[in-house]
Amino acid sequence: MHFDCWCRWLLWASAFFVGFGVVAAIAPHSGLFDFWIGEIDNHFFAGEIGASALAMRSFLMGPLGATIAGSYLLQVFVIAVPFRNREAWAWHAVVWATLLWIVVDSTMSAIAGAYFNIYLINLMPLVVFGIPLAATRSMLSSTR
Hints:
Layout: H1 3-26, H2 34-45, H3 51-83, H4 88-111, H5 115-136
Helix pairs in contact: 1-3, 1-5, 2-5, 3-4, 4-5
């Protein structure tokens, strides 16, 4: 694929995750997260979550969703201008930020025995962002 196609892919994928983060923050019980929340409830609460744990999860989804939305909004701007201009630092910023999140999140999930989080949450962005990032590396103006 052409460099501009990969840029559009990355831009739209990043914008999707901005929206995903906003929904996670303001509507965590919308049904969009049932697949993941069900796994959390089964793993940590044997399927029966109490009212105080439910309240804590509702609260934590706010900062989690806001963090997701904010980091991907920053990525939208990085991809829209410097990445599109083939500036190597922008490619590195997106690659290393993505890898840092996936490695830390997956490690902590594995330590907690919550392997479902790795395959339900982390693998999809690794593929969605990994493919275009791998494809565009050789198309940069400089890969220092």
